[in-house]
């Protein structure tokens, strides 16, 4: 694994800067990204417009007129970036995502079972066993890139992507698993669906999952799915969010 000893700072136009910590998907690198994000959020630096974390970097969008002295602004960012450490904590917020697996909601469950040689019941057990770390959001609004899937479930993407995948669909593509937050095209193998709304532009918090959080899938039946879907539609459903404890690794 390659990793920069010093944060790499790059301009991205006249109103953004990208600070990069490495060149691979790695929890320690992402820990530095999230730590810098927290430093900036707590620093109350004037002129910050938006922070966008990725697997290995943080994009910082700012208002050049509000920032004033750009040189001083960059020095402050550089100082905070240099203070970050790749300390991976197993703690943090965990959001529980109820999923109805198989059947009409998981049309590719049979494909995954055939490819892996694992029964549908065992696929569900293994898929719901770990807590998944959200490295970043991207692709579509609220699409979470999750790490931590059991590699025995790895299955190639569909040869012919679907034109429309329903929002809430849970799928597998290679060694990754994820949730489609909105109706969109896609080629992931669909194994289930959640009734939760991952992207709600009208809500107080548009995104249900954020980078740096953990996701725990929970298998549910069709009846419970319908009940939760009804509560989500009426905006009375409260997602289960837990505090995951753990030491720094």
Automatic annotation (TrEMBL):
The keyword Hydrolase applies. Keywords: ATP-binding, Hydrolase, Nucleotide-binding. Coiled coil: none annotated. It comes from the Bacteria. This is TIGR00370 family protein. SMART domains: AHS1 (SM00796). It comes from Acetomicrobium hydrogeniformans ATCC BAA-1850. The keyword Membrane does not apply. GO terms for molecular function: ATP binding; hydrolase activity. Residues 7-209 form the Carboxyltransferase domain.
């Amino acid at each position: 694994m390659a990793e920069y000893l010093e944060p790499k700072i790059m301009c991205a136009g006249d109103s953004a800067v990208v600070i990069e910590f490495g060149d691979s998907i790695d929890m320690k690198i992402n820990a530095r990204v999230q730590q810098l994000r927290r430093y900036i959020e707590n620093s109350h630096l004037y002129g910050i417009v938006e922070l966008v974390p990725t697997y290995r970097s943080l994009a910082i969008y700012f208002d050049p007129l509000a920032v004033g002295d750009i040189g001083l602004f960059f020095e402050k960012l550089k100082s905070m970036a240099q203070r970050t450490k790749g300390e991976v904590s197993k703690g943090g917020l965990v959001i529980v995502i109820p999923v109805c697996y198989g059947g009409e909601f998981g049309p590719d469950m049979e494909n995954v079972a055939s490819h892996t040689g694992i029964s549908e019941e065992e696929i569900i057990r293994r898929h719901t066993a770990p807590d998944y770390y959200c490295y970043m959001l991207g692709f579509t609004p609220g699409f979470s890139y999750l790490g931590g899937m059991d590699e025995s479930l790895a299955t190639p993407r569909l040869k012919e992507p679907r034109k429309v995948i329903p929002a809430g669909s849970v799928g597998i593509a290679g060694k990754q698993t994820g949730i489609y937050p909105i109706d969109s095209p896609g080629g992931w193998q669909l194994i289930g669906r959640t009734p939760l709304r991952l992207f709600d532009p009208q809500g107080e918090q548009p995104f249900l999952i954020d980078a740096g959080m953990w996701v725990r899938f929970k298998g549910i039946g069709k009846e419970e799915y319908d009940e939760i879907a009804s509560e989500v539609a009426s905006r009375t459903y409260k997602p289960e969010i837990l505090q995951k404890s753990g030491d720094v690794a």
